[in-house]
Amino acid sequence: MKYLILLIFFINNLVSSSLHLSISSSPSRLNPMLATDSASSEISGWIFNSLVEYDKNGTIIPRLSSSWHFIDDKTLIFKLKKNIKWSDGKQFGADDVVFTYKLITSPKIYTPYSNEFRYVKSVEKIDDFTIKVTYKKPYFKALNTWMTSIVPKHILEKQKDIMTSPFNQHPIGTGAYTIDGFEVSKDIVLKANPNYFIHKPNIDKIIYHFIPDPSTSFLMLKTKKLDVGGLTPLQVERQLTKDFKSTYNIFEKMSNSYTYLGFNLKNKKFQNPLVRKAISMAIDKQQLIDILFFGHGRVCNGPFMPKTWGYNKDIKTPYNPQKAKELLKEAGYTKKNPLTFTITTNSNNDIRVNAVQIIQYQLAKIGVKVKIKTMEWQAFLNTVVMPKNFEAVVLGWGLSISPDAYSIWHSDGAKKGGFNFVSYKNQKVDKLIKKAETTIDKKLLSSYYKEIFKLIVNDHPYVFLYIPNSITAVSKSIKNVSPSIIGIMHNEIDWIKP
Questions:
Q1: Chain centre distance of CA 166
Q2: Could you tell me the sign of the dihedral formed by the alpha carbons of 139, 141, 147, 148, in that order?
Q3: For strand 130-135 and strand 75-80, is the pairing parallel, antiparallel, or unpaired?
């Protein structure tokens, strides 16, 4: 009998499979309500689910819910799936949804995601698997609100302080994978959830190798120690061998993200709009793209993505260094009294660091003196960005395929824990955002957002820099890979790795 057990154990380990990925920064908290950095969001995305989500074509589909319907333009009914359990074996149900809503909107936690629920009047349990959501007024993203991950009531209702709860490092979810915990600057191991309600993922483990240096990540791809990895344009254009191309499929698309130079608008240097406009006009964005991306990217002209209904194709910021000099002079800056400021960014992103160096060079041509400061990601986020302890930052936003201006551009977002950390305030923008939120008519909604786009660009709270292409290498040994507008990993549970 003992030998039979050993044989079964050997066979199970022999056929188990692992997907090897890399991660360049450590997550801070795996509670999806508090996961505001990209590393935390990526990992928690495997562990938790929302009521609805996007499919590969960008259509909203049920996930924890089985169906939904609107009773009227302010009342939404969700039916929940009955075959879902938390990873500790407890039944998922309506109580968890109500608890999640009450927690995310409570003063117990600081989270920018509470903004998603600002128009929700109430969330009521009709029965164990039915939820009634009542909105204060018609809301154009009533359904999108419920793309927020649901957390377990039976665990978190017992926690005195959610911000410091052990749950943030040892989460219990309904997702495709589970995690025992993580350590800072260590590899992260996710295990397939055998009771996942869609089906157990075909790949038993996802191993995120902690690799803060992008060149090391590329080396691991070349030596076939990673199954999936991002590629830089330089690597694609100059460094891929025949062996690499025979080992990996390469998928490229415009990313749903942009990089920007953001000004601290509470700093006196940047309260003069002439200064912000001058800096914007002195930065040659196309040169940035040519140097950094070898053509694998495009100029970013504003806050919403091209091909979305909020994009205003008529608005562009011209490159005009001579005009920039005139604006600086008008603002009181000369050779004897030059504008001097510091740009801070995260040290583990070579492209951003290089972008800042190019910007430093370009601004020097108009007499602006830029100092550069780079920091480790978590230190940058926690001591510089969120407390607004900066003059200017280079950062990026990853956006939904459905624009929502509120969290980043409404003045409400300038509060503690909000995403409007540059402290941008424009009453016209605020009013248009609020007006748009209650507009169901898509054409009218689009017109409001295009005007918001125009106003923001003309105010220059950011210099919108570039939209990089997303380039991903995936091992050819993996079956069922299906590219989509929401990313390559959308159907990972169906992937098969021999």
A1: 24
A2: negative
A3: antiparallel
Domains and CATH numbers, the chain: 17-168 (3.90.76.10), 257-469 (3.10.105.10)
282 vs 268: CA distance, rounded Å:
20
Who contacts 400 (Cβ-Cβ below 8 Å, separation ≥6)?
144, 147, 256
SS3 383: helix
Q: Length of the chain in residues, anyone?
A: 498
Beta bridge pairs of residue 134: 75, 122
Task: Evaluate if pTM is beyond 0.85.
Answer: no
Q: Between vectors from CA 495 to CA 490 and to CA 202, what angle results, nearest 5°?
A: 115
DSSP 8-state class, residue 381 = I
Pairing of strands 188-192, 205-210: antiparallel
As a whole number of angstroms, the distance between CA 93 and CA 254 comes to 38
The CA radius of gyration of the chain, in Å to the nearest whole number, is: 24
The amino acid at residue 157 is E
* Tens digits of residue pLDDT in 82-137: 999 999 999 999 999 999 999 999 988 988 899 889 899 999 999 999 999 999 99
E strands, 195-283, are: 205-210, 228-230, 248-254, 257-263
Distance CA 145, CA 160 (A): 26
Contacts of 178-182 with C-beta under 8 Å, sequence gap 24+, read 178/47, 178/87, 179/30, 179/43, 179/46, 179/47, 182/26, 182/27, 182/30, 182/43
Q: What angle do CA 34, 39, 44 make, to 5 degrees?
A: 55
209 forms beta bridges with 22
Long-range CB contacts for residues 131-134, cutoff 8 Å, separation at least 24: 131/77, 131/78, 131/80, 131/94, 131/97, 131/98, 132/75, 132/76, 132/77, 133/75, 133/76, 133/77, 133/78, 134/74, 134/75, 134/76
Q: Of 465, 466, 472, whose CA–CA distance to 486 is shortest?
A: 472
pLDDT in tens, 193-218: 999 999 999 999 999 999 988 889 99
